[in-house]
Design brief:
The complex is a heterodimer of chains A (180) and B (947). Chain A is an alpha+beta fold and 180 residues long. Chain A has helices spanning 3-8, 27-36, 44-55, 62-70, 74-83, 103-107, 110-121, 164-179, and strands at residues 95-100, 127-128, 134-139, 151-153, 157-159. Chain A has 2 domains: 25-91, Arc Repressor Mutant, subunit A (Orthogonal Bundle); 95-179, Glutaredoxin (3-Layer(aba) Sandwich). The radius of gyration of chain A is 18 Å and the shape is elongated. Chain B folds into 5 domains: 19-93, Ubiquitin-like (UB roll); 160-287, 2-Layer Sandwich (Alpha-Beta Plaits); 299-372 and 578-736, Rossmann fold, CATH 3.40.50.740; 374-571, Dimethylsulfoxide Reductase, domain 2; 809-932, Beta Barrel (Barwin-like endoglucanases). The chains are: A alpha+beta (180), B alpha/beta (947). The A-B interface holds A 2-5, 7-12, 60, 63-64, 67, 71-79, 82-85 and B 146-152, 154, 164-165, 183-191, 193-194, 196, 198-204, 208-209, 442-447.
Chain lengths: 180, 947
Amino acid sequence: MEAGEERAQGARSRDPEREGPRPAADPAQVAAICREHDDRPDALIEILHAIQTRFGFVPETAVPAIADSLNLTRADVHGVLTYYSDFRREPPGRHVLRLCRAEACQARGAERLAAHLTTRLGIDFGATTADGALRLETVYCLGNCALGPNALVDGERLQGRLDEARLDRLVDALCEGADS
Amino acid sequence: MTLAREIDRGTPARRAGTMVEVEIDGRRVEVPAGTSVLRAASQAGIAIPKLCATDSLEPFGSCRLCLVEIEGRRGTPASCTTPVEPGMRVRTESDRLADLRRGVMELYISDHPLDCLTCAANGDCELQDMAGAVGLRDVRYGQTGAGHLEAGKDTSNPYFDFDPSKCIVCSRCVRACQETQGTFALTIAGRGFDSHVSPSAEEAFLDSECVSCGACVKACPTATLVEKSVALHGQPEHSVRTTCAYCGVGCSFDAQMKGDRVVRMVPAKDGGANEGHSCVKGRFAWGYATHPDRVLTPMVRERTDEPWRPVDWDTAIAFAAERLRAIQARHGRGAIGGITSSRCTNEEVFVLQKMIRTAFGNNNVDTCARVCHSPTGYGLKQTFGTSAGTQDFRSVAKADVVLVIGANPTDAHPVFASRLKRRLREGAKLIVVDPRRIDLVRSPHVEASHHLQLRPGTNVAVINALAHVILTEGLEDRAYVEARCEAEDFARWAAFIRDPRHSPEALEETTGVPATELRAAARLYAGAGNAAIYYGLGVTEHSQGSTMVMGLANLAMLTGNVGREGVGVNPLRGQNNVQGSCDMGSFPHELPGYRHVGDAAVRALFEGAWGVAIDPEPGLRIPNMLDEAIAGSFKGIYIQGEDLAQSDPNTQHVVAALGAMELVIVQDLFLNETAAFAHVFLPGTSFLEKDGTFTNAERRINRVRPVIPPSQGLSEWETVCRLGEAMGHPMPYPNAAAIMDEIARLTPTFAGVSFEKLDRLGSLQWPCNDGAPEGTPVMHVGAFVRGKGRFMLTEFVPTPERTTRRFPLILTTGRILTQYNVGAQTRRTANSTWHPEDVLEIHPHDAEERGVAEGDLVALASRKGETTLHAHVTDRVPAGVVYTTFHHPVTGANVVTTEYSDWATSCPEYKVTAVQVVRATGQTAFQRERARREADARQLARAESTA
């Protein structure tokens, strides 16, 4: 879905199959987190981190609550929240696979792997599988270019020298593991 | 006539003392230090291409079009973010620069719809202009890749559209919302390629935090944000500079026209009061001027239960003159009078009071300022010597501490509020004194240091306590007081105010303001380098309104805060020309220029000019006229542009008085509530048809120019003159300018004012005379107008309106952003989208006690009357206080207000009424009666149109 199209509908990118009750942030909890940071507007980024740590993502309902505590507008909070790709506005998958698509990895076949992944999982980058097991994201350079193509699993496990087969095994493990 | 185009110099002017000389493309130019290269070039006559830069906003440096080469520097810096340096040599054009700019433009255009011919901004598009300026001939990138061309349009705002497909993400709208308006409703969401403008958190404009001031629309260089009226009608072809007719800020606008159709109103950058800014009313809510409800034909009737009879002007004027004379023959010269309007021009008001004093032969003239700022005139005259505020609006940019009391600027004076908020963001401190938690107490990016949440009706106790703290803690400016104020009056006042009964601790019980908070606020105010007071009707519309104004003046004198920039005592005037209507001699005891009718020398001056004897006795005030009408001795009234039956307190009393009169003449745009009781209806002109001047709250005389001809055929001053003539007192003026010439001849503070000079200089702040030929932005510099400032005793006397078990709550009233006063104008625009009805704000505790839930219909009853409206449960109001607006006649908020009024000026006590609130099942008898009258009027109108 193109960015423009998405805005035209005035809705955030959502996977229709995963529509269901979305966890909302209790405004009191959000306010408490803000208070821990003395309701300081310049602590907005730390507060967003704290909320993501607490809820797993930054729920839509947290935005007005943060704005109220920090005496900012919803626009102010939304602008910062959406600027950083590390802030999630959706519940995360149980695992996150970030495939590097920067130049060096591209040169070593990362785009082929990207196509393979989207076909196999049936989702685009920036989306999560219908069962919530795996989220697919793009990253631009993990600093491991000599051993590319690279991917990062759950923010900590770096996987190098990837090819279709290794990637399949990795995805299988993540999806199975997720079920257990 | 041509379309005035503002020159955009790219970055704001700097006011540094030192000048810097630079050379740009071989031309030498001298500019203040801190000026950008872009602006310096513009002043040298060189237009560097630019998109994200505009001189109402701080430089941003994002569009990369204004690149230049500077000798001795590497690269191609952006000229908007590069300040000039002495001896700098700049080149604005070279092959390298041309290539770079074309490259940048290519990228912009690769993601921009190529629909220029059918675009709303065609003819007024900076993107188009820049493509031309850089010589864009080819776009190599095509439009097939990812882009934003499919982004959907947001048409939710009634006045402008948002089409993100045309957006170049220059951030001008976002910055205008922040810097100019101070609302911060817009942001750039996402990053990189996905960056896009988002109202609040991807909300529709109408649902977002946007207040529709139009600053973003004005700042947008493309058709991304464009007025619906421009999209509908196309580009304007000529413009007329005029002045907004809503609040007392008095914003200057260019009415941009296409033939006799207004295409849009654009706030003027060189407007003294607004400097390019506007609010939702002035910018967008002018459609009422051509609303089908406007009455364009004079009408008469013998009795108010008869249908109106449309007649020509001569018939209507003869009808009125004949009956006025007949009443005088039967009941005496003093049986008739008139009311001038603060919505009309100085010239219109001047001729009306002149007609009353000459043709009517009495001083029975009053003005709607009676019910708003009459205590300001009285209080400031007593203490300072002039019935007006001390500063210009720009002065607030130099204030360090601002005391806002009984005013809600973000709703009622939004353009001033934007100036104030800008200063607060720069670090000035704010004290709010208000029973209600107004937006200034806490709203995004603004937070008051102290909110003294007093009980309504205890203003004077609070101001006395503030002064008490300052004086007993030795925080006063003794040198200032000694040099500038009457010693004897000060000594008497100091002894009075030092009395422990004025201490915040002693008054805590009365005012409800914690003593520690009040002491802290007093110290903050007294300790400021520059402390400024801004106040509104929450000060004046009380039984002690005049006392309170004097209390404010005392406080300012005590701390040395009068007579320079950044300080002062500033009334925020409610209506566009309330200052002017008072200046023009609208009070029964004062001739133009606030000179008492009892003064023989003054009378002689006017008698000489007007050729009649002027009654040395003051005439009747509005409330006296109404009382006398009920008593039977006052029989005829001329009401210029005021809806007495909706706006004045105790509606039943007003209606009874109007009903008792033999002749009620209403001059108005619409058949208002008062017209139901009228015998003669003289159609008035909207501000778009007027030729004259308005005087705003900062004493600024602005020209109001006719944008379209009077649609009912006669300007209002001519109507008055013809009535005067029909009564035997001709007032022949060739034009409105001649009226101002007469005002200038007869009024020392206006001696130097003329239309010619106003046209030349834009505006003038009175006093304007030989001593100050270009006007006086700040008053009382060096000395007070009355010589020495005079401290006045301000004994707190509680209002006679008390809460009881039957009426346990206090009602206070106010305004909301999108509606204006009785709503005659704004209700006839799309502004009602935001505020379709008046609601009653009630504290959750009071609501719960009464079983009232959000949205319930409730009855609001006082000793005077009862009405119904819907409840809004909110802790904005404290427990014990309820609040509503008075914009909708169906609510009739003034049905419940009382006849209590200011002791000195009879200004009604709108702000304190003891009431009870209960759940209601249906409308009150008064509301049903009003609905019946409205239905009758409609039926009559239908009968007439088919007749």
